[in-house]
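Quick one before lunch.
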Amino acid sequence: MSEFLTIDTASGVVTEEIIEPLKVFGENHPMLSVAIPEYKEAIPNPSMKNLVARLKMTMKLYNGIGLSANQCGIFQRVFVIGTEHFQIACINPKVVAKSEELSRENEGCLSFPGMFLRVERPTWVDAEFYDETGAFKQIRLEGLTAKCYLHELDHMNGVKFIDHAGPLAVQMARQKQGKLVKQIVRIQKNAKKMGNKK
Ligand SMILES: [Zn+2]
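Model of the zinc ion complex:
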């Protein structure tokens, strides 16, 4: 949780809001399979500001580098990308140009914990979007940031990263995911046992 101050510019009244993280839903949440329509409200506005703050907080909490509103069951065309030190919100994101060159990189998704797949995507994109302050952004994204932007843009269109991989690759990734989950459960059980001995 963190405090979030909003100032009403007309009255000068400062309100203190408590920002709480959102719940990230698993791969079967129906909102992950539908295209999210364009965001039509004027920005900035308090509810979008609040949503972006919560998305950024949640992404950090889960150690993610990207998180879409619909992964949290929120039907808004917005996602956040970035690392611990730098995050941007992308409202009504678009790709206006992309590299012809493609590369295949390992990807994960907070809706598919412990699952990793190699996904082929352009190496750079020219992106256009609005941030939560209402600023229009036109930037070229490269490497991991471009991959991440495209992964989240897919979420906005109801596309999951497993949709980019063949059935065999998905099956192998699922097996590895299963092993990883078992390992985590075992570690947690052992940690509990050790805790009991004390
Ligand atoms: Zn994802």
